[in-house]
């Protein structure tokens, strides 16, 4: 289902780190991997969601979490603040596990074509309280339908 694109693994991971940086997060989590995966056109089509919708859903989840703590955040500026880059070693244990699993499920020869599919499947398999599970629920992604399509 996912065709070969120029170094898709690298593109997805770099995009995930950039998404984490844009949000001002200090670590790369599974939610950032999903955002990075949505930079891959075929993955976004397969999941039935676009990057802007995923970013908006993640912001809604953040605001809800802050409200639970008694904090209300007003309107945020359209242009993101300048945040430092997220260190390459700053992956959450869950993000590291999903990424490693996706890479190990492929061969070197098929890696670029297959990692996006395995990464999508790994992210869909995450359970709450993992941030990506909450994001998938917020986006209304049908896990079973997507798994059946990608398997």
UniProtKB/TrEMBL annotation:
Full protein name: Clp R domain-containing protein
InterPro entries listed in its UniProt record: Clp_N_dom_sf, Clp_R_N
Residue span(s) of domain Clp R: 10-61
Annotated organism of origin: Nonomuraea composti
């Amino acid at each position: 289902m996912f065709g070969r694109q120029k170094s898709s693994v690298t593109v997805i991971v770099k995009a995930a780190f950039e998404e984490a940086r844009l949000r001002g997060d200090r670590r790369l989590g599974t939610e950032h991997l999903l955002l990075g995966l949505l930079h891959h056109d075929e993955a976004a089509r397969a999941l039935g969601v676009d990057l802007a919708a995923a970013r908006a859903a993640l912001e809604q989840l953040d605001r809800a979490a802050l409200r639970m703590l008694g904090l209300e955040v007003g309107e945020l500026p359209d242009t993101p603040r300048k945040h430092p880059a997220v260190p390459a070693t700053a992956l959450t244990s869950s993000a590291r596990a999903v990424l490693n699993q996706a890479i190990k499920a492929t061969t070197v020869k098929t890696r670029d074509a297959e990692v996006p599919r395995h990464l999508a499947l790994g992210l869909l398999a995450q359970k709450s309280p993992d941030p990506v599970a909450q994001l998938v629920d917020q986006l209304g992604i049908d896990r079973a339908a997507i798994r059946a399509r990608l398997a």
